[in-house]
Each structure stands twice: as structure tokens, then as C-alpha cells.
Amino acid sequence: MKKILLLLFFGAPFVGAAQQASWLLMPAESTITYYAKHPLHRWSGENSKLKGIAKLQEGEALPSQLAIIATVRDFDSQNENRDAHALEVLDALDFPDVKFYCNQFEATTSDSLVLQGDLEFHGVKVSKAITAAFTKSSDGFQLQGRFGFNASDFGLRLPSFMLARIDDAIQIAFDVRFSPQIVE
């Protein structure tokens, strides 16, 4: 009887692990880009130094969990002065990361799904429904899409330039790829 209890106690975590596979984000093949605008000009900044993990249940087509983290200082707008000022405005020392966590996935078509999760930015967490194109193959899966948010939703007041404020609406484009990996 003791052997059965020990087997159940120590073996149970491995049974669950065998049923759920971890897929790691491939930073060399993934990007997140923000798009901002001011009445006088538009610009964007790209981050390809992302980190992330997804969990897929064995035999399931869709992920069951997903987490992506982007460090604010890694967004590059091709303008060092703008990027340095953005770090100040975004309080990057206090809030260095932008995070997205998701554990609800709904297929809308055979190649599209809605990710319902939490976007955490500047110390504020906002629930977000994001539509993404979903492509799965034997060597991984890819999510692509766009969504928007208002900087003020995260307690940010964007600066003015030439007596006009930077637009509160920020657009995000993402192309993230995950590959099955053994995660210890």
C-alpha cells in the first residue's frame, strides 16, 4: 500500500507533464511593433528580443496558456533621442516590461482565434480580447495580428510636441512564433 501511495505522490506530477507540452517563443523569428502618431508625424518601434512560453494539451489544436514578455528598453524606433525620452515617459526603471498572459482561446475560423487575456503595462493590468491569425505546423505555431489600446488606460499621459499632444491611441502589430521545446 505504501508503494502505491508513493507512486501516486511522486508519479502524479509527471503524468500531468506528459499531457501538456511547452512551446517556447522563438525571438529570432518574432516581433512586436508599436505605432504612434502626432499631428506632425508618425513613427514605430520594433522589439525582437521577446520572451514567451505557451502550453498545449496533448491532442489539442489550440494552446491552453500563453505568456509573452517584452522589455520596454528593447523597442527601437530608429531614433535614439525618441527612445531615451520614451524610457523616461514610460517610467521604464519602475515598469521595465510589457506582459501579456492568456488562458482563454476561442477559434473563430480554421485559421483565426481570439485570445482573451491580460495586458500589463506601466503597472496596470487591463483585460484584452485580441484576434490573431493562427497557423500550426509540426515544428511550431505562429500568431499574427494587430490591436490597439489607449495609453491613458495605463495611467500614462503622453507628452506634447509643438503644442500638440501625442495621440493617446497606440497600435500594436505582432508576429510571434513558438516551437515545441523541453522546458525544465
How would you sum up this structure, described in words?
The protein is of the alpha+beta class and 184 residues long. The protein has a single domain (21-181), classed as Lipid/polyisoprenoid-binding, YceI-like (Lipocalin, Beta Barrel). 15% of the residues lie in helices and 55% in strands. It has helices at residues 2-19, 80-89, and strands at 20-25, 31-38, 41-47, 51-57, 63-71, 97-109, 112-121, 124-137, 140-150, 160-161, 164-165, 169-181. The chain has an eight-stranded antiparallel barrel. Strands 10-11 form a two-stranded antiparallel sheet. A hairpin with a 2-residue loop joins strand 7 (112-121) and strand 8 (124-137). The model is unreliable at 1-18 (pLDDT under 50).
Write a short abstract of this structure.
The protein has 184 residues and is an alpha+beta fold. The chain has helices at residues 2-19, 80-89, and strands spanning 20-25, 31-38, 41-47, 51-57, 63-71, 97-109, 112-121, 124-137, 140-150, 160-161, 164-165, 169-181.
Order of helices and strands: HEEEEEHEEEEEEE
Q: Per DSSP, what share of the residues sits in E-state strands of 2 or more residues? A: over 45%
Structural class: alpha+beta
CATH evolutionary superfamily: Lipid/polyisoprenoid-binding, YceI-like
What is the gyration radius calculated from CA atoms? 20 Å
CATH topology: Lipocalin
Using the coordinates above, name the CATH class: Mainly Beta
Across the major sheet, the strand order is: 1-4-5-6-7-8-9-12
| Level-2 CATH architecture | Beta Barrel
Number of strands: 12
Mean pLDDT: 85
Task: Tally the structural domains.
Answer: 1
> What is the tally of helical segments?
2
Q: What percent of the residues sit in helical stretches (DSSP H or I)?
A: 10-25%
Largest sheet, strands/sense/barrel: 8 strands, antiparallel, barrel
Straight-line distance between termini = 31 Å
> What best-fitting shape do the alpha-carbon axes yield?
elongated
Q: Spans with pLDDT under 50 lasting ≥5 residues? A: 1-18
